[in-house]
Each structure stands twice: as C-alpha cells, then as structure tokens.
C-alpha cells in the first residue's frame, strides 16, 4: 500500500463504526481497539460479496462484504460490514410548523408542505422517492446530515409529475460513543425561499470548511421557455405555481446553479446560490485541494466539462469559468485525451443575479438562424434538442458565459460531446480526480455529419470511470496562465463496464461482476480506495463498489433493492473516532416489468417488492458501517488539520464581510 497506510501507523486501526457492524454479529466479539496496539497496518482490503440470487435478497439493501486488515507482523483480522438505514423518505421525522411530515416532502415559499391534489377526494403531501446526496457536518458537539430529495416520480393518480419543487432535509443525528452507530434525533426542511426555491438537486459534496455544496441539474431550456407551448414553459410555470403559487414568477434562469448550505452552531441553515459558477446541468461541484478550483459533473447528452477558479480560497462568490476542449489521444481502455481549457469569463454572484433579476431572456443574449448562415456558429449541446445556429449579441458575452455557458463554450470551440458526466472524486495525495461517464455512447462515439466530433471513442453502454491528471503551471487556450495548481491536463479510462450481448438469467445486460453505469463517486484518502455507486438499468440490482488504487481490485460491498439506484455516496472519515460510507437508494422497483428474468419467479419478485418498500413509493437514507479508521497516519493528520484551518478561515472571512450567521 502507499504511505497513507504504511508509514507512521502506530496502533493504527480504531473503528468505532466497525464495532457497530460487530454488534450486529454475535459470532464476532473482537474489538479492534484491543488488537496489536503496538503493531502497524500492512494493508486494508475489502472482500467482495456475491450478487443477490434470491428474491429475499433482491428486494432489500444489504451487505455481506467484509474488511480484511493485515498487520506488519502477519496478523490478519476480518470484520463484517453492515448497512444501517436511518430512515425512509416516507417516514414522518421532520418537524414543520408543529406538524410531523415525511422526510421527502417538499415545502413551498411559505414553508408549507406541497400537496398532491391529483385525487381530489384524497389529497396528501408529495413524498420524494429519490434521496440523493448526503453531507455529514459536525458543529460543536452535534452531528448533522444534509440530504437531497430530487423529485417525486409520479403523483397519487399515477401520472408523471412536471415541475415539482425539490427539497433538502437537515437531520440532527445521535452518535453512540461506544459503537459509532447513528440514529435520528430530529429533522427539519431547509428553507430555499431566499433563492427562488430548489430545482432538481442531484449529487453534492462537503467542503473542507464545513458547508454543503448542492446542485440543480437538467436546467430548463431558456430558448424553449419563450414558446408557451413548450415542455420547458410548462415545467417552469408548474414549478412557480407549486412553489410561489404564482405562475407569473416563472423564470428559467432562476435554476441550474450550485447552492451552498451553511449550518450554524445552533443548527440553523442559510443558503446562497453561486451564480458565478455557471448555469448548466449540475450533477455536482467538487472542490479541489487548493479550495479555489472546482470541477463539475454536467449530466445529459452533449454536455461539457467545466472548471471554476475562485478569486479567494473557500469563497465561491466570484471567480473565472473555463470550458474544456478534448483532444483525443487513444481509444484503448475506455479512451484517453488531453484537455485544453477555454476561458469563458470572470464574474461575481452579485453581477449574475442582477442580470437574472433584470429579466434578461435568451433572445436578449443570442441572435438565431434556422439554417447555416454566415456569422452564425452551428452548435449541438444538451441545452437544446436540435442543432442551433447562434450569434452572441454585441456586449452580451459575459451574460452568455454564465447564463448559457454550454452554448457560449461551444461557440468558442469547447467540446460539447460528453455524455452522462456524473460523479466526481479527488485523490489529493496523487493529484488525481475521477469522473464517472455513466453511459459512453451517443455523442461520445464517432458521428457522421456532426457539427463537432472531438470525441470518437468506442461505445460502452455500461460506462467508464475516468482518471483526471491534475497539473500546475497550465495555460488556457489563449496562452494565459490559469491561476490554479490543480488543472486537469489529461484523462484516461480507469474502471470499465462490460456490456453483455444478451441478458443473463437475472436480466443483467452488463457483466454483474463489473461496474455498470457509474454515477456517485467518493474517495478515501485513508484507505486509498475509490467508492463507486451505480445508476444502472443494465444491472437488475445496483451495487456500491470499492476500487483499491494500489491493487486495482474491485469489490462489491453493497446491493440495493431491485430497480433502485445507489445514491448519496460519501466516504466520511474521522468523525469522533468513526468512519462511514453514506449511501442511499432511490426509486426501488423501477422498470422491473421490463426485465427479462428467469432465475427467479418474476411475478413473485414484483409482489415481494410491493410488500416491502412498494414500487417507487419511497427511498432509503443510510450508511455502511464497519469501515476501519486509521489513526496515526501523518498524511491524514495533516489533512484533518488543514480542514480545521480552512473552517476557521472561512468563518473569520464571513464575519469580516458581515455575512456571519445568526446565532
């Protein structure tokens, strides 16, 4: 293993959360704290579990994986992992205006629960079946978790829901001091009324200074919104009606941003949206080790890779936005290429918000043509369904750069061909980042008659997780120096899925022993391990995997219910002596009817799903326990100290600027 596991590890394994796992297994009474106190760890290995093969296992969230710890004297200890569910999205754990409501219920601008009136004689609160990102945040002696709730798939009448506002929930957690086990103390909804509500929040991340960075993906098409017959107009108007109870407040430029949520020492939340980071289909924003540079997932087809460099550390209220041009260098092992960064512009949150509130529209920014025309650039981006012929109006370059960065980036030559660019993780010690391309197909293949064809990679429907190589002293496309030491200069495939030519007996169309359609990513510096969560229709059951960077071993460590997606993945280390892998699941039972399953009785499987969680009725929020925490690691101690310093610096900066929280 690398030095993060083998240098300076005096008694190195203390796993309060592993005691949680052992508490659930009476056959294993060992206590890591009493093992080899003067020994050092040689390696930590995740032992893979088998894929579920019975109806009983296919409908539940569980792990049979173990962690094998080898000490330098040859001693080997192995303990089981365990999945602890904190709550279901339908559980009434949220206190809201004196009433207990479900965790996944969205609220309107007044803080009232949003009601589903699709069955007039039986109105009820909407409940999201789609929990996603989690952040675990410690404030004083209290531990909080912020969780996303993306959407409600359908209303009570079974109809597809359009434009329903989303929500986040803040949960105060109790932590057992002996075992590390987490339980719910109380919960409340987070208020987004100061930022015009919350669009679809997908993945997210936790900053080193103790805040949560959320997301708003699938930004509404502002061009289509100008047509009142369009789906975009309907969706944004529905949102305004649900949230403001006033459809005249519909504005597509309110949505598609990065919200940052702070928690005070008293458990109060405050929210800002970072308009200077650009508006697109934000899967998430991941901050790099300098706490100034950030990368993003851009979910959908014909998307773009963006980078943001803030003016000041820990402060994303002003900075410079860049977009990447991909220069392909190979097709083997998923593919590879160099990245050339094009500067789009510099702005502050305040500047961009002023533009939005002024009522600027798509037609104020661009001239359009219906066919190839001199002076107009042909672009194909996720922003619109078809090829567009665009010209930026004089003086509107900055507006285009931040309200329409994908369209503007394509005009400047950035590559708009990435497909389903999802999760991100950072390996600080090795100056690497990782990005999930969930489905490597479509715009990432060679395309005849494409307006741009920078990416011409082999089709891999089950996707590829890529490694980004972070470099210093990089120049942008114009030759100007980029003010960051963590610029992605190149990328290459790291973990590949494998498509099957025909479904297997469980209905899988991708190899069940390899990752299919990677989505959530999280990296553990302590364990030198990349955790990968799936969002796959190619696996009948989705999994969470652990990929060891040193050994290149891939281990399945969690299975979620049939039809469900594994979400909310976050490796959390050093929480008062415990470590966890936060992991949720959403929309269980989805698309089950489409699966070609012969290994078990499909009707009985569907019935079992209905009798347990229901079909797309609720999702689950929880975590994997039993992850060993490594004490005495010099690198980890430096990382923890840096986080404490960043937190203090961020708090001092807020006070100095008059933005300190109300205590």
From TrEMBL:
<dbReference type="Pfam" id="PF05787">
    <property type="entry name" value="PhoX"/>
</dbReference>
<feature type="signal peptide">
    <location>
        <begin position="1"/>
        <end position="23"/>
    </location>
</feature>
<feature type="region of interest" description="Disordered">
    <location>
        <begin position="634"/>
        <end position="663"/>
    </location>
</feature>
<keyword id="KW-0732">Signal</keyword>
<dbReference type="InterPro" id="IPR008557">
    <property type="entry name" value="PhoX"/>
</dbReference>
<protein>
    <submittedName>
        <fullName>DUF839 domain-containing protein</fullName>
    </submittedName>
</protein>
């Amino acid at each position: 293993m690398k030095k993060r596991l083998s240098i300076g590890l005096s008694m190195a394994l203390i796993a309060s959360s592993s005691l949680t796992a052992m508490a659930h297994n009476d056959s294993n009474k060992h206590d890591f704290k009493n093992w080899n106190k003067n020994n050092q760890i040689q390696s930590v290995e995740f032992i893979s579990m088998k894929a579920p093969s019975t109806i009983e296992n296919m409908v539940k969230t569980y792990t049979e994986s173990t962690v094998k710890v080898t000490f330098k004297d040859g001693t080997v200890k192995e303990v089981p992992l365990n999945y602890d569910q904190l709550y279901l999205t339908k559980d009434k754990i949220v206190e809201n205006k004196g009433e207990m409501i479900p965790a996944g219920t969205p609220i309107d601008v007044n803080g009232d629960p949003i009601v589903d009136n699709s069955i007039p004689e039986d109105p009820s609160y909407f409940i999201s079946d789609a929990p996603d990102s989690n952040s675990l945040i410690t404030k004083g002696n209290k531990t909080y978790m912020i969780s996303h709730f993306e959407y409600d798939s359908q209303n009570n009448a079974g109809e597809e829901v359009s434009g329903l506002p989303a929500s986040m929930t803040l949960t105060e957690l109790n932590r057992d001091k002996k075992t590390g086990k987490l339980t719910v103390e109380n919960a409340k909804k987070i208020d987004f009324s100061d930022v015009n509500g919350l669009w679809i929040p997908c993945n997210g991340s936790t900053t080193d200074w103790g805040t949560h960075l959320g997301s708003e993906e699938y930004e509404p098409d502002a061009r289509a919104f100008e047509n009142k017959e369009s789906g975009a107009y309907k969706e944004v108007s529905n949102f305004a009606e649900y949230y403001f109870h006033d459809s005249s407040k519909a504005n597509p430029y309110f949505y598609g941003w990065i919200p940052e949520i702070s928690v005070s020492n008293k458990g109060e939340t405050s929210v800002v949206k970072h308009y200077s980071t650009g508006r697109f289909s934000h899967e998430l924003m991941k901050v790099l080790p300098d706490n100034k540079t950030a990368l993003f997932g851009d979910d959908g087809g014909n998307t773009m890779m963006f980078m943001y460099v803030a003016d000041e550390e820990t402060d994303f209220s002003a900075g410079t936005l860049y977009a990447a041009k991909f220069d392909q260098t190979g097709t083997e092992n998923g593919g590879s290429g160099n990245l050339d960064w094009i500067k789009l512009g510099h702005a502050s949150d305040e500047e961009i918000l002023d533009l939005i509130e002024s009522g600027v529209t798509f037609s104020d920014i661009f001239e359009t043509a219906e066919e190839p025309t001199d002076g107009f650039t042909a672009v194909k981006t996720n922003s619109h369904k078809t090829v567009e012929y665009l010209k930026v109006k004089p003086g509107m370059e900055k507006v285009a750069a931040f309200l329409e960065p994908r369209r503007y980036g394509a005009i400047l030559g950035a590559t708009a061909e990435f497909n389903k660019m999802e999760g991100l993780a950072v390996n600080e010690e090795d100056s690497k980042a990782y990005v999930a391309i969930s489905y490597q197909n479509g715009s990432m293949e060679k395309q005849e008659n494409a307006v741009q064809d920078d990416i011409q990679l082999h089709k891999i429907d089950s996707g590829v997780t890529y490694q980004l190589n972070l470099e210093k002293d990089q120049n942008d496309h114009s030759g100007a120096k980029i003010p960051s030491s963590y610029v992605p200069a190149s990328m290459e495939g790291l973990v590949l899925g494998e498509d099957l030519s025909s479904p297997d007996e469980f209905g899988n169309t991708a190899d069940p022993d390899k990752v299919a359609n990677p989505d959530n990513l999280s990296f553990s510096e302590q364990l030198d391990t990349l955790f990968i969560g799936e969002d796959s229709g190619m696996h009948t059951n989705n999994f969470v995997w652990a990929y060891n960077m040193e050994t290149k071993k891939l281990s399945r460590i969690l299975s979620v219910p049939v039809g469900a997606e594994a979400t909310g993945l976050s490796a959390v280390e050093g929480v008062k002596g415990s470590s966890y892998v936060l992991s949720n699941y959403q929309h269980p039972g989805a698309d089950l009817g489409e699966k070609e399953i012969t290994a078990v009785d499909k009707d009985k499987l569907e019935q079992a799903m209905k009798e347990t969680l229901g079909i797309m009725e609720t999702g689950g929020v929880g975590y994997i326990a039993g992850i060993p925490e490594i004490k005495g690691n010099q690198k980890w101690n430096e990382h923890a100290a840096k986080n404490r310093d960043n937190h203090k610096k961020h708090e001092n900066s807020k006070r100095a600027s008059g933005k300190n929280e109300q205590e």
